[in-house]
Structure formats: structure tokens, C-alpha cells
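Run log // design_07
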């Protein structure tokens, strides 16, 4: 079964000094999962917490489990950025559009995972994905965008801050060794 219903593709002119002129943001489907999983495996290590006993094995098995759940659960929305001529996947953003803040019960859109292929890092190619996600959140009258970022992942934090995200809470952890 396809994860998502069809929706008109949106062509986004990515701005600035990027290697290709046109990228398309489209909804992802279950058939995209193998490509997304392989892309995630390339970069997930940068978002792993140094406080946890995670390993390379975790990335292998964790990515399989994660995308297995995402592909079958309608609570998740996948946005894919692809190069319009070659259809090469340059990155993706996984959203929970109907997330509810546990304390205040406000509706918000949760940016669960964003990945850009490292060969495109430094070119702001995440912006068309964030732009489309924000439009979808506004269409649903959601009041906020939310994300969780591992403290050591300074590049990701800088990325989200440059889109207007602010630090809301600290997640604290104690290892029971
Ligand atoms: C997060 C990600 C999507 C951002 O895409 P990108 O192409 O690297 O982003 P850009 O280079 O356009 O912008 C990165 C920002 O971080 C800054 N930055 C780069 N390296 C940095 C570092 N080591 N420390 C702090 N900031 C850094 C850049 O200056 C830029 O900030 P600015 O827009 O204020 O100038 C991409 O790096 C990625 O896929 N990371 C791996 C997956 C991941 O960590 N996802 C987030 C999970 S929450």
C-alpha cells in the first residue's frame, strides 16, 4: 500500500550557489523507503547522542526499523527533494503533521528527521523542504513547528535556528552504568 496519496508536485527554485537549477519537493511513498534508508545510514551518526551506548550496528538496524514504521503509518508524512532532471534524491524531511504538545495540547508539526545528502551540504537545499513543511503546517492551522536535536549536532541546530526555531526546553539524561 502506498504511504501517501498523490499530490501535485511543487517545483522550487533553490536559491544561491547550488549545483543544479531546479529541485522538486514531492510527497514520498513506500517505494522511496530503500533510498531514504540508505541516505539516512550515511549521516545518522552525526545526530547520535554521545551519552548513549549507540553503535554502528544501531544505525543499521535502527534505520531499518525506523523506515519500516514510517512507511506503514499514516501519522508520518515524507517530503522528498529530488533533482528534477535525474530524479536523484537529494534529501528528505519526515514530518508528523498532527503532533500534539503533551503539556498544552496545542497542535503542532513535528520535524522528525531531515537529511540532505552530504554532497549537497552547505548549499541550503534543506530550505525548499522546510518551506513546504511550513506551508503544510499553516494549511492545517498548526501553531508551531517542533524538532528535537541532539546537543552535539551543532550544524543541525544552526540550520533550524536560521529558519527561526528557538530553543524551548532542555532534555536531560543520566546514564545508569
Ligand atoms: C542538517 C542538514 C540537513 C543541514 O543541511 P546543510 O546543507 O548541512 O545546511 P547548510 O550548510 O545550508 O547550513 C548549515 C548551517 O550550520 C552552520 N554550520 C555548519 N557547520 C557547522 C558546525 N560545525 N557547527 C555549527 N554550525 C555549523 C552553517 O553556517 C549554516 O548556518 P547559517 O545558515 O546560519 O550560515 C544536513 O547537515 C544533514 O543532513 N545533517 C545530517 C542529518 C541531521 O543531523 N539531521 C538533523 C536531525 S535533527
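design_07 sequence
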Amino acid at each position: 500500500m502506498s504511504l501517501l496519496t498523490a499530490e501535485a508536485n511543487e517545483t522550487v527554485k533553490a536559491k544561491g550557489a547550488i549545483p543544479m537549477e531546479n529541485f522538486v519537493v514531492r510527497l514520498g511513498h513506500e517505494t522511496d523507503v530503500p533510498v531514504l534508508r540508505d541516505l539516512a545510514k550515511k549521516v545518522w551518526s552525526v545526530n547520535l547522542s554521545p551519552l548513549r551506548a549507540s553503535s554502528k550496528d544501531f544505525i543499521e538496524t535502527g534505520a531499518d526499523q525506523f523506515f519500516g514504521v514510517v512507511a506503514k503509518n499514516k501519522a508520518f508524512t515524507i517530503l522528498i527533494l529530488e533533482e528534477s532532471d535525474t530524479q536523484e534524491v537529494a534529501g528528505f524531511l519526515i514530518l508528523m503533521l498532527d503532533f500534539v504538545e503533551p503539556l498544552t495540547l496545542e497542535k503542532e508539526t513535528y520535524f522528525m528527521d531531515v537529511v540532505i545528502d552530504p554532497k549537497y551540504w552547505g548549499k541550503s537545499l534543506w530550505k525548499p523542504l522546510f518551506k513546504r513543511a511550513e506551508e503544510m503546517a499553516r494549511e492545517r492551522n498548526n501553531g508551531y513547528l517542533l524538532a528535537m536535536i541532539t546537543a552535539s549536532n551543532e550544524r543541525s541546530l544552526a540550520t533550524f535556528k536560521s529558519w527561526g526555531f528557538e530553543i524551548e526546553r532542555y532534555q536531560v539524561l543520566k546514564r545508569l552504568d
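The chain is about 30% helix and 25% strand.
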